[in-house]
Amino acid sequence: MTYPHKKQRHKSLFSPLLRHLACLLLLTAGGQSLAQESDHQYTSEAILAGSRVYVQQCALCHGPQGETVDGINLRLGQFRTARTDDDLVGVISGGAAGGRMPAFTLRPEELNGVIAYIRAGFDPSGVAISIGDPTRGKALFEGKGDCAGCHRINGKGPRTAPDLSEIGILRTPAILQNSMVDPAATLLPINRAVRIVTRREETVFGRRLNEDTYTVQLIDSNEQLRSFVKEDLVSYELSSEPVHQPTTLSSEEVADLVGYLLTLRGLQ
Ligand code: HEC
Ligand code: HEC
Predict the structure, then answer these.
(1) Is ligand 1 within 6 A of the CB of residue 209?
(2) Which domain holds residue 91?
(3) Closest residue (by CA) to atom 38 of ligand 1?
(4) Exposed site from 97, 129, 247, 268, fewest CB < 10 Å?
(5) Is residue 214 in some structural domain?
């Protein structure tokens, strides 16, 4: 699958820090180039171009807010059968519902743009996350990406990292993407690693599950559920360092993983 918007990453050229600095420089140089530079999402030019295509070709039936066709809300990403960006290409180029939605012959940049506009939630200044193929994403999750080595899904896998069984309901595509691309920015307080020293001089490393004023519950590094009364602790530290490092997977692979994570909606 090769789309014009999928740019190759230049992993070897930039360390994450340098890339970050480069982005900051671009930010001061002008907002537009920032989006262009980021290789995991659609460009702001594509989103803007897509808004024009949408108004001319799609709004007649789907309405300016994308919600006038029954059961579909394009702005909120609620479709009937479509899930991935590939699926959207298929619907737009092939039509739907026995011709009630006609097939469109769009230039590649128009097609790319209108999908970007939909993924950006109809916000021309928004961020459009590319959503790839869940089947390939699952294979990456269990194979090359080594995600299954840490994460548990539907009762399978270790408990030391957050359980992802319902992550597709809990998080937006943008957060899911960022947990791979920019983990430091998306580290949620509840997911921070903890280090506890008890009065009996036991040091426990783990992942916090729950906390109230007096107690804290965690999964320790041996996957045991532990509960501590805070009064009995000598020290209780939260790490601000994410376990995740920014991924070295390609932008296409990240899109596929986002596509897979979005399908994780618990056992239904
Ligand atoms: C003539 C009316 C019409 C126009 C114009 C139109 N659509 Fe549709 N579209 C529909 C109808 C009707 C459906 C619902 C199909 C169904 O019931 O399964 C639909 C469904 C869809 C779906 C969901 C498909 C699925 O199976 O999940 C998407 C996405 C979509 N349209 C995007 C677009 C885009 C983008 C454009 C502009 C390029 C567009 N449509 C133009 C009538 C239209
Ligand atoms: C070495 C263990 C490890 C590996 C490998 C790993 N993760 Fe994680 N992941 C964690 C931990 C721990 C967290 C909690 C946040 C943190 O510390 O970074 C986390 C957080 C997450 C979150 C955010 C969860 C939330 O509550 O929002 C997602 C999504 C995620 N990981 C997906 C993945 C994917 C996809 C892969 C494979 C590409 C992967 N992880 C590989 C340990 C791991």
Answers:
(1) no
(2) 16-39+42-119
(3) 58
(4) 268
(5) yes
The finding on whether 59 has its CB within 6 A of some atom of ligand 1 is no
CATH number at residue 221: 2.30.30.100
Chain segment 62-121, per-residue pLDDT in tens? 999 899 999 999 988 889 999 899 999 999 999 999 999 999 999 999 999 999 999 988
106 and 84 in a common domain: yes
Residue 233 sits in the same domain as residue 254? no
Report CA dihedral (172, 176, 178, 180) to the nearest 10 degrees. 180
Q: CATH code at 32?
A: 1.10.760.10
User: Are 206 and 89 members of one domain?
Assistant: no
The mean per-residue pLDDT over the stretch 164-189 comes to 88
